[in-house]
Amino acid sequence: MAEEEVAETTLENTPTWAVASVCFLLIVISILIEHLLHLLGKYFNKKRKKSLVQALDKIKSELMLMGFISLLLTVCEKSIANICIPKDVGETFLPCKDISADYSEEEAKCAEQEKVSFLSRQGVQELQQLIFHIAVSHVISCIFTFGLGMAKMRRWESWEAETRTFEYQFLNDPRRFQLTHQTSFGKRHLNYWSDNPILFWPVCFLGQFYNSVSKVDYLTLRHGFIMAHFAEGSNFDFQRYIKRALEKDFKVVMGIRWWMWIFSLAFIFFHANVFHSYFWLPFIPLVMLLLVGTKLKGIITKMCLDSHDKSHVVKGTLLVTPSDHFFWFGWPRLLLHLMSFILVQNSFQLAFFTWTWFRFGIRSCFHRVTEDIIIRLAVGVLVQILCGYVTLPLYALVTQMGSSMSKAVFTEQVVRGLQLWRSKAKKNAALRNPYSAEPSVDAPPETSPSFSLDPSFIVDLDCRSDTGYLDAENKVEKKGKNIQEGENQQQRISSFQGFVRF
Description:
Elements: H1 2-8, H2 16-46, H3 50-75, H4 77-81, E1 84-86, H5 87-90, H6 105-112, E2 115-117, H7 121-152, H8 155-162, H9 166-171, E3 177-179, H10 184-189, H11 200-207, H12 215-229, H13 238-254, H14 258-269, H15 283-310, E4 313-315, H16 334-360, H17 370-398, H18 412-432, H19 466-484
Antiparallel strand pairs: 1-2, 3-4
Helix pairs in contact: 2-3, 3-7, 3-13, 7-13, 7-16, 7-17, 11-15, 13-16, 14-16, 15-16, 15-17, 16-17, 18-19
């Protein structure tokens, strides 16, 4: 009877129309998914969202990696099951206390040797299903988190528009003097707990849950960023810059690095019954997320204290100075990698919970304890909401206050135009003096051997309004087309004001 059941599962006893139907269905589904991803990529290209296109490529590569792992498991399924290990070793670190299962052919062979299979064929198949759930859960988790954060940051558009009103210009008149603690930003952060090392971090911890990014925080940090990198009075669209920078960070979050895989394997190992992992393992992403949020709130307060220590009198608007020393190890991007790790681990735990639920039932040996179900589900959902609605907007704003400025300050069109100009300048310099060493276009204009450029190509970076950006982008695009078509206009200029070197 057992031999007949095994024979029925092979292709020898399966109708060809059934095999062809299944293959046809799988091919159609694969083509539809590929077509949808292709249309999504074309849409991002049309909207000139290069960062989102790169994030989409990252998703494709992660799915391909998961598929390759699943393929390897399928190929090596029988070989893995034929590996026999001592019985006492195979019964250690089990996720369930009791063991009750039907033995397969490979397991029966190992049982004859008084051993157990290293990983049964059914276990390999279930592992493939788990990998699929992890991949889908990670993609959905990242999209949901960034979508929730972007939705909350839409209110910043009205704050950004307010900076161009006459009322804002009047209230922030540089000829107006006031004390630091009398400013709105000072009233919010200069309190009795600000200099108290015992109360400082608890207050910052609680502050992330109530009005984590206020209007006054946004306007003050925006002013500090513009004063540090641009001319005073610039109409730079800070909100649009943050959005572009966050889109660039999205592709980093979508990737799973090797050290994250190590922690994921550790999560699987510690899910054994002896560790009672449901009491502590789900709280790791939550604790890390709360620490990141507390640190971000503390950075805002420390910037206010730093400005207060430098001067107790404010001229116009309170000026905060961006600096890397406010961040852990002087590395602002560390927070980005921590958030990526948090999302990966949380999505991994949610995927494991949902997979065991649908595969074995809600009351399987994985979730026999009611506290296990409540803790895993509640903490997983809480981390997703907190990360998207609280921590992500805080991260998007505060990480711009490092010492350096992201290349996202330019749109993709401007970056492409400047790269074309740089390439053209290097070619012109080489043509003028082919026997000399290759000149550097990064040298100062007065020492560089050849810089021929149409003056209309210069981008005035002090014009930061939407109209100014559009004009600059049009100039760069128009000049880029001329470079590509070979229309070289040779004209020496002596002023290079407004350029940023890449």
